[in-house]
Amino acid sequence: MTNQQPAVNEETARLLQRVYRIKDPIHYEVRDGVVFIIKENNAKIQKVLRKIRYKIPKTSEMELDEYGSFIFQQIDGVRTVGEIAELLGDAIEEANNQLYDRLIIYMHHLEKNEKYIELVKK
Fold it and tell me: What is the predicted pLDDT for the residue at 53?
């Protein structure tokens, strides 16, 4: 199915041309199509609590939902946000509702808040 998106304004068109890559050293695993981001629990207080025998795990996992997992697996340092949007819209038809706006917000969240990805090309 071809993704039919409405015309976009100049700002959205510019954002759709951005290219991201996953930052190094982000550790993640893909299990049955679901992405699990693995974070090390190495804050100073966590290390101290482990020494006095509190059961603080050395790592924790964050499971991404269906959309997030699909998007994360498409980020390769080559594809533009617009290309990822097309792939997402073709793979998950329900994602076509406000596709560009939602994807741009999600990519911004991954870059600025979570710091999982970085901008390669504006």
Answer: 87
In the chain, the percentage of residues whose pLDDT exceeds 90 is: 80
Decide if 29 is inside a domain.
Answer: yes
Q: CATH no. for residue 31?
A: 3.90.930
How many domains, the chain? Answer: 1
Q: How many CB atoms lie within 10 A of CB 84?
A: 24
Residue 115 domain-assigned (yes or no): yes
Average pLDDT for the chain: 92
The reported pTM is 0.85
